[in-house]
Specification:
146 residues; 4 helices
Length: 146
């Protein structure tokens, strides 16, 4: 890990991302904090290697982050859970690009997310229509971005 790296920054991740479920951790950010996050993302998009046009992030990755921070993140409550389609509209890119951008932003330590879930109680008929019962099912509703 670089010496002057911000908290949560990881040079490379080992293995798949650990899935986190629940209501999500909301982090309120004032305007200056959002600007600092954007400056970090822009610094990570600068060319690091000769012959390469961009750094760890591309311009579209930074555009997706800007859409999340400035269009969807609620500064007072910290809530941010837009759909991929809404992010793609604001960032002027495709849904697939949003998918790749969110993963790239998480890989460099700028963004994280939580799978938001809802528990649904449903009626289940028993074998041959006898002895039916209720059961709980967990449904993933959306992602919450931090």
């Amino acid at each position: 890990m670089p010496q002057n790296a911000p908290a949560g920054f990881s040079e490379s991740r080992r293995g798949p991302r650990e899935k986190v479920f629940g209501p999500g951790r909301c982090v309120p950010l004032e305007r200056n904090a959002k600007v600092r996050v954007m400056m970090l993302a822009r610094a990570l998009s600068r060319r690091q290697e000769p012959g390469k046009a961009y750094g760890k992030l591309t311009a579209k990755h930074v555009a997706v982050l800007a859409a999340l921070l400035w269009s969807f993140h609620n500064a007072a409550t910290g809530k941010c859970f837009p759909s991929y389609e809404a992010i793609a509209d604001r960032a002027a890119c495709s849904r697939t690009m949003v998918y790749h951008a969110i993963r790239a932003l998480e890989q460099v330590g700028v963004l994280s997310w939580v799978n938001r879930i809802k528990r649904v109680r449903e009626w289940v008929p028993g074998l041959f229509g006898k002895a039916s019962a209720w059961r709980w099912r967990v449904v993933r509703t959306s992602n919450s971005y931090v």
